[in-house]
Amino acid sequence: MASSVVRATVRAVSKRKIQATRTPSAVHKIKQLLKDKPDHVGVKVGVRTRGCNGLSYTLDYTKTKGDSDEEVIQDGVRVFIEKKAQLTLLGTEMDYVEDKLSSEFVFNNPNIKGTCGCGESFNI
Q1: Within 10 Å of residue 120's Cβ, how many Cβ atoms?
Q2: pLDDT single digits (tens) 74-117
Q3: 105 lies in which domain range?
Q4: pTM listed for this prediction
């Protein structure tokens, strides 16, 4: 069962065709977040119906792999993808971006057909 102790700010970005991967920045941030959560084994990525454009990403800590979750391991970091999100995340790169005013996980998804003005929701 996923723990909703924390949710990351996530936005959809449609730029270029990218292979399914997580950047070193995202891997490092997930490792850092999980250090304080020894009872959690990774993070779970999902999609929910919300926002002005249809779908929005979710990111939660998780203690176990769900029966229908896809598991992706990179540099020791375990990311579980909910069944509902698997097709929407094909070819997507997960990144973590920090600047002086904000920090957030960003999903560079080549399958996106449109996003809302704020970039929080998308449609495929």
Answers
A1: 17
A2: 889 999 999 988 888 888 888 888 888 888 888 887 777 666 66
A3: 21-116
A4: 0.76
Q: Is residue 8 part of a domain?
A: no
Diameter over CA atoms, the chain: 40
Which H/E stretch holds residue 122?
Answer: strand 122-123
Residue 52 lies in a domain: yes
Domain of 54, CATH number, reads 2.60.300.12
Please write the tens of the pLDDT for every residue from 23-32: 888 899 999 9
- Number of domains making up the chain: 1
Kindly give, in sequence order, each residue whose CB lies less than 8 Å from that of residue 34, ignoring residues fewer than 6 positions away: 40, 42, 43, 61, 77
Q: Which amino acid is at 121?
A: S
